[in-house]
Write a structure and sequence with these properties.
By secondary structure, the protein is α/β, with parallel strands linked by helices. It is built from eight helices and five strands, in the order ααααβαβαβββαα. The protein has a five-stranded mixed sheet, with helices on both faces. α6 links the parallel β2 and β3 (158-164). The longest helix has 31 residues, at 69-99. This is Phosducin.
Amino acid sequence: MGRLKTSILSKKPMPPSHLKSPKGVINDWWRFKMESVDQGSLPPSKRELLKQMSSAHKPRDDSLRTLDAPECERLTEDDDRSLSQYRERRMREMRERLSLGPRFGSVQELSSSQAFLSTLEREHRLTLLVVLVYRECVEGCRALSACLDCLAADYPTVHFCRIDAATSGAAERFPDDVLPAVLVYKAGEMLVSLLAVTQHFGEEFLAADVEAFLGGYGLLPEKPRAGAAEDSMAVDI
């Protein structure tokens, strides 16, 4: 298939962190608590207990005995709030690690060549950018666009976009006989330019056909497994 030059439409993921032992998680939590609590507002006995609990050493029994019942009750309530905040922070960090970049979930319409260039320049270096170049009057463009809507929901880490060839100002570079075209970028570099894509399908095709076609070029990541993020976070927290 011929390739078409386009002037204006022209590391490895970090592995999941090692699971921590219960002791390591508890120490992390106490360090977080020490950072989030206003130390100056606490009585000396409570500050000393927090300092000991946030260290890697076992607190001294005589320090624990200096707390009376009301102080222990207040400390328990503070612990519950701090643990909730800590858990939320860890879940947020885990989601960011698992996603390996921003998440999208839908196809973005690009209204101009400048919008395309801005998207390409701002894109996260780990994000795969898939751009559909189309014209409403060209057969197959509308069907392929609908298929990409489905794939965008199934592959939320892939940034799917579409742009009208006429609106982009590149109609002379994308005549009707090469549309619909799919351009794929990563880290600002074009990986592949696929022209007249629908010629690879029959008169009627589904999102699964487009998925298999793009997957054959190695242009789609592994489809995320439902509940994978929650399972990992449940273990790591």
